[in-house]
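subagent[fold] <- orchestrator: predict structure for attached chain, return tokens only, no commentary.
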Amino acid sequence: MPSAEMSRPVVEGVRFSTADHVLEGELAYPEDRDTPLGAVVLAGSHPLLGGNMHNNVVRGLGDGLAERGWATLRFNYRGVGRSEGPRVDVARHMAEFWQTSHVSGEMDLWQDVQGAVDFMRATLDPSLPLVLIGYSFGCALLPAVGRAANPAALIAVAPPLGKHDYSNFADSRCPLLAIVSEDDFTLEQPRLKAWFDTLPEPKRLVQKASDNHFFRGHEPWLVETASAFLEEHLP
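subagent[fold] -> orchestrator:
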């Protein structure tokens, strides 16, 4: 895939359906390209812990990849912002999370990611490559979606390996990029190595100190790292 020139992204508010709810999102795409390089769906951090589509990592990757020629979709999970669904009680759910490291029903949110994939496939040429990007909790939802979506690549940014089961990433056969901050408080290096060693090729692990789990001030580096990986691995 040739390197894309930078272009101003257009950002539009959109709404799309899942199995049970209508969700809000923001679709970003390059202003001066008739056909984007492909579709990118971004699954953000935990909605029951305050995550939304305006998170710095999700917005930074969404806008940054759109500048490089991709059409990207970030969205609010059910019950967040103007997305339909039971309203999120952050204080109550956060208390539950800190007791158990889990929140009831959280893994059902893969259906919201699937709805975003379906929207992108219906909006763009379905033959364009699809890339799934997860940040934090969103990483855990990617394999469930990937089994049906057949993505061209997976990107996992700061996967909290101690909180959920990531063994099903080993079933993926598409290129996978893991981006992890060296000082991330959510995981231990031995656990990261053990998980990454189970993954099939092609794969890449990129690490540097990047504001712990949050990448504040490092958004351009995230975009550059993801873009370079996609240019290398997608035909």
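orchestrator: received. Logging for downstream: The mean pLDDT is 92. The radius of gyration is 16 Å.
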